[in-house]
Amino acid sequence: MQQHLHKKLRAVPSPMCPCGDAEQDAAHILQDCRNLQPLRREIWTRPVPLHEKLHGPVEALLKTTSFITRAGLHV
User: Fold this and answer.
1) Which of 31, 58, 67, 74 has its CA 20 to 30 A from that of 24?
2) Radius of gyration of the chain (CA)
3) Going by C-beta distance under 8 Å and a sequence separation of 6 or more, which residues neighbour residue 53?
4) CA torsion, points 21, 23, 24, 28, in degrees to nearest 10?
5) What is the pLDDT of residue 75?
6) What are 2-40's pLDDT values in tens digits?
7) How far is it, in rounded angstroms, from Cα 43 to Cα 63?
């Protein structure tokens, strides 16, 4: 039903990221979105694989939570 409404009324927001480069999925947001690059570099001072950001130890997950909150994203 929701997909039907999206097509007819555009009641569901677009899945595209505001940067316009890709769909707004976990991999894009956490790894690639150019709009979030400064915040990403502030939180992760070294390259961190997506798997660690999503399934790593508590410290890694706290950084991911902080990133999502500070980016103003809603999960």
Assistant:
1) 58
2) 14
3) 30, 44, 60, 61, 63, 64
4) -60
5) 75
6) 444 444 444 557 789 999 999 999 999 999 999 999 999
7) 7
Residue 74's pLDDT band (cuts 50, 70, 90): confident
Distance set, CA 26 to CA 1, 5, 31 (Å): 24, 24, 8
β-pair partners for 16: 23
The Cα–Cα gap between 39 and 51 comes to 19
N residues, the chain: 75
| Token pair for 30 | 């956490």
| Nearest Cα to Cα of residue 68 among 56, 58, 54 | 54
